[in-house]
Amino acid sequence: MSSASAFDLQAYLRERVRWVDEALERFLPDEGERPQQLHRAMRYSTLSGGKRLRPVLVIAGAEAVGGEASLVMPTACAIELIHTFSLIHDDLPAIDNDTLRRGRPTCHVQFGEATAILAGDALFASAFELIARNAETAPAERVVQVLRLVAEASGTRGMVGGQMVDIESEGKPVDADTLEYIHRHKTAALIRASVLSGAVLAGANQEQLKALSYYGECVGLAFQIADDLLNVLGDPRKMGKAVGTDAARGKATYPALFGVDASRRRAYHLVQEAVQALRDFGEKAEPLRAVAHLVVEREG
Amino acid sequence: MSSASAFDLQAYLRERVRWVDEALERFLPDEGERPQQLHRAMRYSTLSGGKRLRPVLVIAGAEAVGGEASLVMPTACAIELIHTFSLIHDDLPAIDNDTLRRGRPTCHVQFGEATAILAGDALFASAFELIARNAETAPAERVVQVLRLVAEASGTRGMVGGQMVDIESEGKPVDADTLEYIHRHKTAALIRASVLSGAVLAGANQEQLKALSYYGECVGLAFQIADDLLNVLGDPRKMGKAVGTDAARGKATYPALFGVDASRRRAYHLVQEAVQALRDFGEKAEPLRAVAHLVVEREG
Question: In whole angstroms, what is the distance from residue B12 CA to residue B169 CA?
């Protein structure tokens, strides 16, 4: 990794986040088109300056095996829509009852609960439309493989399943196994699917997919631990949302179970593992390596 | 249609509904598997004796062009999961606030609101897993085409969009255009996608798809008009849900706008149009013809 110092992550991210934001702007339904209120809510929650970690990982996953961003852009945006959908539903009064997200009122605060539920549903549907659209630039077999990956990572054996166990565990003593289950499903599954989707679309072989699967899982877990740590130690102004909310809710978190220091050590260890998994990828995987480090070093 | 009298619709439906129920039972996640509560809710709402109209239409759509039920079963079940997901979310307190569905307490009454929201989300995700799985018995290109059809029919340009305008219109005077928009999107879009998905998987040509698209749209609209009529005139014991709720909510319905007689005439006219669209299909389309008639003659 002698070239790591030569790689300019900030410039890389700036460019790709701009591509993703432009593509999302283009893919999302128009506010002038009926039903306007639904489209306003979908755009409000999606186009609100997120980090775009997942779409960047789709792109970087493709690049790591010689693909190009333009080839995978519909799927990159699809996964961001799924992430946004999950945030909207998780913020609902019946679930986390959060009122602030990315520095702005949450979707249901801004548009009402009915619209927020349906905006989440519509974003989820749009995500799968976009995956289908990726067949314009990639073979159908690969698109179907991506469909399976992303659907599994979103549902009961992925994100939604993790969120369910997270809610069930609130206010209860949680063991390490359950915490691991929550993190792997709620967060790591979709992050892993992001890297893999990009790689699949770009024609990765089985060995590459195996390495990227492990990379994605490690980065996903590290991301969630870092998130838990930010909820304890973070600056709400930099994060655009409240801190201390996990403890107040009796949420199962890494620092609550293992303490801040052990959590930090585990996050850094996971990043090392992730980077190690990329040892045979050469320079093309520099973005993935740099993103792995960023995940635990971010401030929001 | 001289063979119409020879076709035994009840026997046909009994068999296919059994196949669909068995496949749903198999495809749905186990209640013993974590997160149990989520899986209980998913199974409770799906395995509750629905009419299975949409999966039957997927099968009948395939059969009309020479395909077989076993070939399209994952997609048939996928569309039933999407239908169930939409019922769960529509029943939520923030939307229609319904407490009875198919003769039993609605999902949020039985399992709580958070679980109901997530069960809907998980069913939606499972649906797309199933569509991906249909690549085991059909070419990937056709699966991608089905994915696009189903995702579009579910989202803002389909079911969810129709539901949004339906909610927005409650208690307001609604013109014929808006009512048509609601019916086409909320109900007809997914019914049309059902017939088309089966036909696409079975290798229908463009001309056949055009005819089946028109069939699906007519049957979908007729179904919604019949639904509106049942809400005015139906027997709650046969329907397993309350009647008179549309009027109480000031919902936009066909009978409210045009009266009961004109609504009935329009529904029958749509069925004729649907059957007419199948004129070149021969005996293989008998099930589709019979289902079209059933849609306006049902009692629940």
Answer: 39
Amino acid identity, residue A289? R
How many whole angstroms separate alpha carbon B35 and alpha carbon B294? Answer: 39
Structural domain span for residue A193? 2-297
| Angstrom distances, CA of residue A212 to CA of A12, A94, A193, A219, B188 | 20, 36, 10, 10, 42
What is the DSSP-derived secondary structure letter of residue B29? P
Q: Which two tokens stand for residue A213?
A: 């699967």
CA pair distance A60, B144, nearest whole angstrom: 24
CA geometry: angle B144, B146, B152, nearest 5 deg: 105
Q: How far is CA A172 from CA A179, A225, A251, A262, B34, in A?
A: 12, 19, 8, 21, 17
Residue type at position A35: P
Which residue has 């409210």 as its token pair? B256
ipTM of the predicted structure? Answer: 0.96
Residues 65-124 of A with CB under 8 A from B: 85, 89, 92, 94-95, 112-115, 117-118, 120-122, 124
The full length of chain A comes to 300
Shortest distance between the Cα of B97 and any Cα of chain A, in A, equals: 11
Q: A47: domain CATH number?
A: 1.10.600.10
- Is the pTM higher than 0.80? The answer reads yes
Grouping H, G, I as helix, E, B as strand and the rest as coil, residue B8 is: coil
Tens of pLDDT, residues A152-198: 999 999 999 999 999 999 988 899 999 999 999 999 999 999 999 99
Integer Cα distance of A79 and B209 in angstroms: 31
Residues of chain B positioned with their CB less than 8 A from the CB of A85:
121
Beta bridge partners of B105: B100
Rounded CA separation A38/B162 (Å): 11
Q: Return the residue of B nearest to A141 by Cα.
A: B140
Q: Which of A75, A70, A68, A67 is nearest to A204 (CA)?
A: A67
**In this predicted model, what pLDDT tens digit does every residue of B127-143 receive, in sequence order?**
999 999 999 999 999 99
**Both tokens assigned to A206:** 């089985």
Encode A209-239: b = buried (16+ Cβ within 10 Å), e = exposed.
bebbbbbbbbbbbbbbbbbbbbbbebebeeb
Q: CA B28, CA A253: separation in Å to the nearest integer?
A: 30
**Do the Cβ atoms of B267 and B226 come closer than 8 Å?**
yes
Chain CA centroid to CA A191, Å = 5
Interface contact flag, A118 B168, Cβ < 8 Å: no
B22: its two tokens: 């068995």
Number of domains in chain B: 1
Contact across the interface for B147 and A124, Cβ inside 8 Å: no
Give the ranges where A100-205 is alpha helix by DSSP (H).
Answer: 107-111, 113-133, 140-154, 159-169, 176-183, 189-201
Q: Is the pLDDT of residue B14 over 50?
A: yes
> Distance (Å, rounded) from C-alpha A162 to C-alpha A184?
7
